[in-house]
Write a structure and sequence with these properties.
Elements: H1 2-18, E1 23-32, E2 42-51, E3 62-77, E4 92-111, E5 118-135, E6 142-144, E7 156-158, E8 184-201, E9 206-218, E10 228-246, E11 252-271, H2 274-280, H3 282-285, E12 296-309, E13 321-338, E14 347-360, E15 364-373, E16 387-392
Antiparallel strand pairs: 1-2, 2-3, 3-4, 4-5, 5-8, 6-7, 8-9, 9-10, 10-11, 11-12, 12-13, 13-14, 14-15, 15-16
Length: 397
Amino acid sequence: MKKFLIIVLIAVMAISSALAGDFSFLFTELDQHVEILGGFLPTLVTIGGSYNGLDLIPGDLTQIQATIGGGYTQRKVFQDPTDGSPLLGDFFTFDTWQARWNLKFLQGFGESWVPEKDLVTFYAGYEGRWEKYVDSMVKGELRSSGITSINFEQQTFPVPTFDNWKGGLLTSSPVFTDLAKDRSIIATIFYAGLRLNGMADTGVTCDGILGDINFKWAPNSLSTDRISYYSATFNLVGSKTLYQKQFSNGSNAFSIVLIDRANVNWTDGAHVPVYAQGPVSLGRKVRGYNTYSFNTQFSVVNNLDIRLSGPDRIFDFMKGVFPRLNLFIDCGYHMGKYFNSDIEGSHFLASTGAQLEVSFMDFIDLGIQVAYLLTPTKNAVTPWKNVVLGATFFLDF
């Protein structure tokens, strides 16, 4: 596996050198491990390059992207490994070494009302993943469960980890087959989608709409450990700049932007691996709740933000670096079968709060998030009643 990743990386570098005029660098993903410097240190990175030289339709973008990356992160699971029933107030945790490689084709069609953008872009591609699962780095440590709205007593307990969950029952779990055996997988995912681009986004101002509909498929014949699933997602974002004050040089002094997102997802299959459950879980999309929690076949979410952005160019060498305060309210609903089980369930979740961040080139948003849970549950463990603190790397949309 290491030799393969090195060969892919060398190939990307070789292509970038040969086609330098039409090549650009891509920095597509960051992730963190919450136990390493409180989650403020990136522990997973994905990079690559894009080539724009094909020009299949004059005036419209034709692009090929190749990326590669990997790292080390933590995951929590909120389903009982024996039958897949939801674990409210309980979980087990493990760490994972990851590598992924991606080849993507994009073709634009038509001219958007936003200058220099295509109205619709078709994209399709292939993603490969390798993951090796290990016991959590917090194995043997104690944690305080804090005070929740369900139980107002402080409790201390050993962190439930990979090897000590119910005496190692996970190694033969019918629910998490991808975590069993030698605890490593290789997965193959094909995807395709259409993107509508009518958004004029400068980072400090944002006006218009973005739409995206996509489909993913991971066939069992090209993956290990019975991995077989599909996922369909619809995403729509609308935004309006309510106010902007500029300095005499045209840079932003202060701005207020209203932005709203609607997201609908259906995911199902013979076996949905843990890595695919996180992005579609309701707990991931309603801020303040745990990723991988409330993970059923169907989810629908609305996220509303009011973004207050400060000066984006106090010094020329810091152009594109600016402070931002996001005030948000999220609500969502999920229903259907919990993944890899016959157990059905549904929940309505809602939260409100704020994110105080520093935005770097409108790509990385490093800061602190405070969320107040309007619909508290045992899955949100916090030392303050209904209040959850966390680190941020990116805007949610």
